[in-house]
Amino acid sequence: MVDESQELFTTLYAQRLFFLVTTDVKGMKFQPIGRTEARMMLENRLRNLRRTGQSQEYDQLQSVFQRTFQ
Q1: Is residue 65 part of a domain?
Q2: What is the C-alpha to C-alpha distance for residues 39 and 32, in angstroms, rounded to an integer?
Q3: Angle at CA of residue 70, ends 43 and 55, nearest 5°
Q4: How many structural domains comprise the chain?
Q5: I need a labelling partner for 30 at 20 to 30 A (CA). Which of 4, 9, 10, 63 fits?
Q6: CA geometry: angle at 18 spanning 29 and 57, to 5°?
Q7: For 37-67, how does the pLDDT look when each residue is reduced to its tens digit (9 = 90+)?
Q8: Could you give the angle at the alpha carbon of 45 between the alpha carbons of 44 and 46, nearest 5°?
């Protein structure tokens, strides 16, 4: 989860294509985004989780982040 109503997905192949999925009362919206933008979104989410003390979710997302971007 990137935000309250946003999720970030990637393809299984080479993790080079990222999609931001936004949900609202009208339905779902799919938006392709670049690798750099996806990385920045996850870095921001990690900072927020660390700041708010949500350590379990932080650890899980940190693990995904490292596998995907490093």
Answers
A1: yes
A2: 13
A3: 45
A4: 1
A5: 63
A6: 90
A7: 999 999 999 999 999 999 999 999 999 999 8
A8: 90
